């Protein structure tokens, strides 16, 4: 069974919490037991000190031995009841002579372990045990030796506290801890489910949108909330979706354009050829219609060539052969080649003043770019309009501008004119001669040449395409030398 992210996150959080609580409980229990034992030992040692003090005071206050024993016994019993401990006193050999137990006869005359007396003589004796079976239950035991003015041992005072209190303390501690841990786990579980749901909701939305993409719906978008990593993922996903939708729209547009581009000439060719075969077109008119058929075949050839060019260029199969040459050579060649079309449309040429301007680029690529732009300029220039050329040089780049008067391009369409398959009929006129590939080819070619290309337009007035190319290599070297000369002159001065 497939587990969701929410379930896995919940299990992971629960395991982590359980391990943390168990570790915290162990540490708390260990520290509490140590603290409890230290407190017990401190209390027992204080009880022992008080017992020794009672013994000394009784010895100095009593007139007879019996009175001294009664005073000591009374003091030991009072101290024992006040502290909840059992106190017993031994002679210098370690034999118990006084005890605060309910049945002291059970302990009187018993001997303390030699180890306990040895440690008590050395300072303080502490133990959690039974004093080698002397005590019936495990107890906390503390003892000291009572010394006279000369430092001689007069006896030993011991106090014992039943260790059962520790078990009760630990039981109470564990019950409190388990209750607190259970409440904490319950609250943490609810918070974990809520937080996990909030974290995974964007992922579910992205998953749903991806499923829609898989079914062909590219309009789905993911709501963006916040600025965290999931929000950034949603933004990236939406950008990808927009690009996919744009590509899909371009593909549909391209298919429509290509279908139209292929259908129109093929219909024309088939109609004229069928007319020649069935005799509808008389023999004396065949040359005229064969010329039309030839033009339509040329249109098909150019369309297929453009598609192949784009495939090669974007696959990186074209080898750029850059060299130094005059950009005006390409401009002049294109203008002279279009002379008849210019005259037929009564288009005026301005700014055509060839001045040697060297660039470093592939001449064939640049020629195709200029040809495509001029071809578009002639198509969309108004009858009796103007095409203006400009060539300028600045900052190591040569900028070529080609402007034509006419309807121009709408502001909405301007950012997309270089997109593949894009063809805007409303602002460019209903022209069936284009496939929307020419300007995209121009952009790819200029990028290969190390330059940039952009369009400017004002609806109803003009449209201008500009592109840049690197200046010739020697021109760059000359500029470097020119910049370095003043520095050398400054150094000489």
UniProtKB/TrEMBL annotation:
> What catalytic activity does the UniProt entry give for this protein?
ATP + protein L-histidine = ADP + protein N-phospho-L-histidine
- Keyword terms of this UniProt record: ATP-binding, Cell membrane, Kinase, Membrane, Nucleotide-binding, Phosphoprotein, Transferase, Transmembrane, Transmembrane helix, Two-component regulatory system
GO MF annotations, alphabetized: kinase activity
Which residues span the membrane? 9-31, 173-195
> Which enzyme type, at the first EC level?
transferase
The UniProt entry, under CDD domains, shows:
HAMP, HisKA
This entry's Enzyme Commission designation comes to 2.7.13.3
Topology with regard to the membrane? Multi-pass membrane protein
Q: Which Pfam families match?
A: HAMP, HATPase_c, HisKA
Can you name this protein?
Answer: histidine kinase
- Source organism per entry reads Ruthenibacterium intestinale
Q: What is the lineage of its organism?
A: Bacteria, Bacillati, Bacillota, Clostridia, Eubacteriales
């Amino acid at each position: 069974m497939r587990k969701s992210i929410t379930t896995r996150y919940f299990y992971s959080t629960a395991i982590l919490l359980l391990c943390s609580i168990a570790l915290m409980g162990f540490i708390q229990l260990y520290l509490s037991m140590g603290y409890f034992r230290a407190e017990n030992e401190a209390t027992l040692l204080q009880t022992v000190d008080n017992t020794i003090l009672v013994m000394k005071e009784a010895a100095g206050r009593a007139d007879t031995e019996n009175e001294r024993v009664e005073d000591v016994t009374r003091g030991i019993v009072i101290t024992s009841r006040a502290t909840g401990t059992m106190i017993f006193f031994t002679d210098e050999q370690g034999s118990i002579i006084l005890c605060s137990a309910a049945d002291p006869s059970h302990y009187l005359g018993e001997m303390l372990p030699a180890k306990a007396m040895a440690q008590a003589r050395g300072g303080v004796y502490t133990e959690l045990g039974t004093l080698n079976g002397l005590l019936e239950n495990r107890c906390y035991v503390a003892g000291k030796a009572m010394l006279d003015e000369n430092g001689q041992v007069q006896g030993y005072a011991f106090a014992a506290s039943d260790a059962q209190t520790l078990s009760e303390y630990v039981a109470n501690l564990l019950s409190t801890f388990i209750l607190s841990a259970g409440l904490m786990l319950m609250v943490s579980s609810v918070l974990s489910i809520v937080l996990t749901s909030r974290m995974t909701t964007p992922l579910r939305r992205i998953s749903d949108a991806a499923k829609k993409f898989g079914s062909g719906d590219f309009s789905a978008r993911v709501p963006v909330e916040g600025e965290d990593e999931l929000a950034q993922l949603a933004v990236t996903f939406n950008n990808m979706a927009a690009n996919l939708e744009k590509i899909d729209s371009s593909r549909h547009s391209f298919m429509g354009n290509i279908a139209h581009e292929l259908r129109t000439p093929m219909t024309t060719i088939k109609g004229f050829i069928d007319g020649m075969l069935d005799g509808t077109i008389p023999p004396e008119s065949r040359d005229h219609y064969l010329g039309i058929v030839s033009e339509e075949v040329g249109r098909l050839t150019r369309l297929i060539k453009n598609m192949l060019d784009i495939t090669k260029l974007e696959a990186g199969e074209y080898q750029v052969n850059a060299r130094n040459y005059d950009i005006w050579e390409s401009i002049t060649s294109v203008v002279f080649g279009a002379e008849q079309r210019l005259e037929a449309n009564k288009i005026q040429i301005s700014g055509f003043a060839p001045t040697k301007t060297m660039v470093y680029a592939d001449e064939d690529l640049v020629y195709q770019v200029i040809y495509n732009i001029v071809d578009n300029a002639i198509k969309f220039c108004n009858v009796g309009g103007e095409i203006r050329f400009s060539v300028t040089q600045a900052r190591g780049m040569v900028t070529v501008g080609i402007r034509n008067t006419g309807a121009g391009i709408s502001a909405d369409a301007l950012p997309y004119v270089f997109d593949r398959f894009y063809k805007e009929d409303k602002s460019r006129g209903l022209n069936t001669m284009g496939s929307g590939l020419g300007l995209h080819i121009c952009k790819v070619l200029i990028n290969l040449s190390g330059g940039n290309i952009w369009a400017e337009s004002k609806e109803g007035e003009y449209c201008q395409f500009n592109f840049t190319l690197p200046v010739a290599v020697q021109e760059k070297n000359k500029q470097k030398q020119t910049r370095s000369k003043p520095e050398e002159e400054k150094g000489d001065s």
